[in-house]
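Because showing beats explaining, we let one protein speak, sequence and backbone structure tokens together, and leave readers to judge.
___
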Amino acid sequence: MNFDVIALIVLCLIWAAFGVIPWLVVAYRRRGRGTLVLLPLAIIGGIAGAVLVPALGARNLPAVFGSLVAAMAGGLALMLVVPHVAQLSRRRSARPG
């Protein structure tokens, strides 16, 4: 396997782990109630947020640390926004015509 592929896989795993950190805080604060559904959102948001840093042009070591911060922010953002959007769409579809 190519070294670049291995490095990308390892980076994605690290970004996913940093995306899970906000989920751990939310799960602790809510005492685990209704937070398991948010775990995949935190992972996907962490990877997506971290990928944006190099995609916007950042390079070298500051980009790596910036992508770790962006992974936590992306995980938190997606985890908090998506359930509210889904709840709003359910409310709109439940309105009588």
